[in-house]
Amino acid sequence: MNTHKLQFDGNRAAFTLVETLTVLALSAVLLTAVLQMYHRVRRDVSQLTGHLEDNRLTREILHKIAEDIDRLAAPGFDAKIQFRNKYDNGHNAAQLTLENNFYGKGNPPRQQLYERVIWQTTYDPFSESLILYRMHEGLNLEDKVLAAGSDVASGERLFIPITEGLTHFEVQSLMADEVSSAAWTSDTLPTAVRIGISFAPLEELPDGSIGVPEEAILYRSVAVDRSRFIAYEFIQRQLDVDDLDAADPNEADMDQAWDEDEFDEFDELDEDLDPDTEQDGNTRR
Length: 285
Known about the structure:
By secondary structure, the chain is α+β, with helices and mostly antiparallel strands. The chain has helices spanning about 15-70, 145-150, 260-275, and strands spanning about 80-90, 90-105, 110-125, 130-140, 160-165, 170-175, 180, 185, 190-200, 205, 210, 220-225.
């Protein structure tokens, strides 16, 4: 049986224990710095993603409300928009009712409901926030299963929860330069409707009250009946032809644009700036 003995060369270069420990310490420091940077970037991305998600949900709700206003306030229908605002356990809550009617047969024709949508909030004591509901009823049902037949009675109102955690839901009407934020119960349509939604927590405002800061509320203004006729008057401006200069400045000759007096003024200015010119009786050399 052949045996082989390992022979080590004492003159061969190798890492010492101190060098090895130094490399391990530097690697640990570098790895710790990289991990800290990674966790910091991950935390910032998570916060940014959460902020975008909150805004995305708010924008989707505002967009859905705007779609309801555009559809129900269409021309050709007897449309009506009404809303009421109130404080519910320190939160700004509101109810927005959108409906349009048509006139059927009869003498005189009888008014009938074609479609109605209600957006409203209710305080939830468990989450200490508002729950947003949406109700849709009328002849034009969105759910065709309910239209074909189901266990739900046709005259029963179904309020579908849209989201929870709301802290501010406000509806305002815009008429010319006036903004109404209390209520709108008139049969006439406002020029526009302004909706404000926020998920931000309540805090003490500068005036001492408790509410949501204005910068934390996302608003959207929705025009009512965008196809309506808007009166526009063109006011023609009267120009006095005698006050206009007959010469075209684009066609003026640059050599003739300066008169002799202006050239004399520039010559005098050049002499004042010339270092070889006498100043105060002394001549610069």
